[in-house]
Specification:
This protein has 188 residues and is an alpha+beta fold. The chain has a five-stranded antiparallel beta sheet. A four-stranded mixed beta sheet has the order 3-7-6-5. Strand 5, helix 4 and strand 6 form a beta-alpha-beta unit. 34% of the residues are buried.
Length: 188
Amino acid sequence: MTPQHQIRADYDAHTIVVYQAYSHAIADAALRAGRFVAPFSFHRMTWIKPSFMWLMHRSNWARKPGQERVLAVRMTREGWEEALSQAVLTTADPAAVAQAAVHVQWDPERSPRGAALNHYSIQVGIGRRLIRTFTDDWIVSLADLTPQVRKASALIHTGHTAKAQRLFPTERTYPTPRTLHDVVSPRR
């Protein structure tokens, strides 16, 4: 049985992949530059999600207005863990949340058809104080997954979920250091 609150991600020895959905204008500019540039906003929180399926649910498989493009953002594990070390759960004291550089919330993981599962996926909000560090220092590469997302969505809608799942990134339990696990895990 999958633990209720466990970070699952596509990662290697040095990097972790998180997903974001953007408008065409933001995605095209970022992919051309190899990093986030205007019209990406450096003045608001940006949410990163290591769960591909949760982002598919959130963006309605890249069909929501302003979320038509899905980017795989490969970032350093050092940056990921630094962000988590500064995190406050969104369910914490409102004053602590308001002051936090990073927000963490847990939402039900999703099946390919969007059904809520019995375990949760982490969402990490990088606040204005850290946004430049995220974009300039922690990001290693950006990749456009939109064609893959559209193909997988079409397969699911025509009853070929098993074929669609072959297009999903492989996610496994992330080896979260105990000190960070205590920071980002909801109290039971």
